[in-house]
Amino acid sequence: MEIPFNDLAALEKALASRTIAAFIVEPVQGKGVIIPDDGYLRGAFELCRKYGTLFVADEIQTGLGRTGRFLASEHWGIEPDMVLLAKSLSGGQVPVGAVLTHKWVFDKVFNNMTRAVVHGSTFSKNDLAMAAGLATLQVIESERLIDRSAQLGKRLLLAFEEMSRRHELIKSVRGKGLMIGVEFGSPRSPRSGHLGICSKPRAADCFAN
Question: What's the pTM value of the predicted model, to 2 decimals?
């Protein structure tokens, strides 16, 4: 079942049936970088608690510091029952994925020896992927990449917002950390002006003070 994003009334109507095992949501929608309303994720979390539904955060695109927090859910004070991670977990070197859960959720699934292999995969214990994942986490921590993402993201957003005031083609700018979306729209005048191209050798130099 698909529920419209940012629509708590639609979500409650679905969950009230008490037939929904889990609510899966990207904290920031990857397609379009759509930011949730301030109270949406907290409200969704509380509805899940009310109706006995697991709150699952799909952090495959938003996790591991991309939004300036280790998990995007943290921006809204949410601690999901389950978290999905992949892609950047290996630093882009090898395919990898991970599912994080509270212990009580894990124990419900793998609660006895009969169910010990209820879910698995031939390559899910891949040593290379696990080594790449651990190395990536170590680099993220040692090089303070999450703080760096928050700082650079703030500078980029300010730069794009300033551009939007000068160029009609930029309809809106939104994002968190380095997860940023620039939406283009139709010009409002015959001569809207081109966006301009930065000729400096490094992209970061285009936004330097």
Answer: 0.84
Task: Report d(CA 130, CA 79) in Å as an integer.
Answer: 24
58-106 pLDDT per residue, tens: 999 999 999 999 999 999 999 999 999 999 999 989 999 999 999 999 9
| Residue 21: closest CA among 36, 4, 42, 1 | 1
Instruction: Specify the CATH number for the domain of residue 61.
Output: 3.40.640.10
Does residue 151 form part of some domain?
A: yes
Q: Could you give the C-alpha distances from 48 to 2, 14, 174, in angstroms and in order?
A: 15, 11, 28
CA dist., res. 23 & res. 9, Å (int): 14
CA distance 153 to 178: 5
Q: Which residues contact 12 (CB under 8 A, 6 or more apart)?
A: 47, 51
- Give domain status of residue 2, yes or no: no
